[in-house]
Amino acid sequence: MEGDTLSASAHGVDTKVLHAFQTSFVQVQGLLDQNRVLINEINQNHESKVPGDLSRNVGLIRELNNNIRRVVDLYADLSSLFAASSGGGGGRATSEGGSVGTIRQAGHKRIRSGMD
């Protein structure tokens, strides 16, 4: 993708926004890689049917669920950032390059991860 890199100023996109996208996608990829490892270990423990391994799966599944929640939060933040940067006004981005706030939609409970 090196050749696909576009100049931020040429397309009217703030460099901070591009940096936030890149940072978020790196975090998402890290979480997805970690989830792959967790799923493999959960499967191995399940196949072994060893009581200690099966009880360890409880914690592993909890960690997997938390990671999935964090990925959802990151994508929600990216969506808000994209909407705010493209003039859609769907969320709020901080001007200091910090985290992006998400909005609570009617009927949807937002659970924030510990990464904020």
Automatic annotation (TrEMBL):
It comes from the Eukaryota. It is found in: Nucleus. Its main location: nucleus. It holds the Pfam family Elf4. PANTHER family: FLOWERING 4 PROTEIN, PUTATIVE, EXPRESSED-RELATED, PROTEIN ELF4-LIKE 4. Belongs to the EARLY FLOWERING 4 family. This is Protein EARLY FLOWERING 4 domain-containing protein. It comes from Brachypodium distachyon (Purple false brome). The gene is LOC100833201.
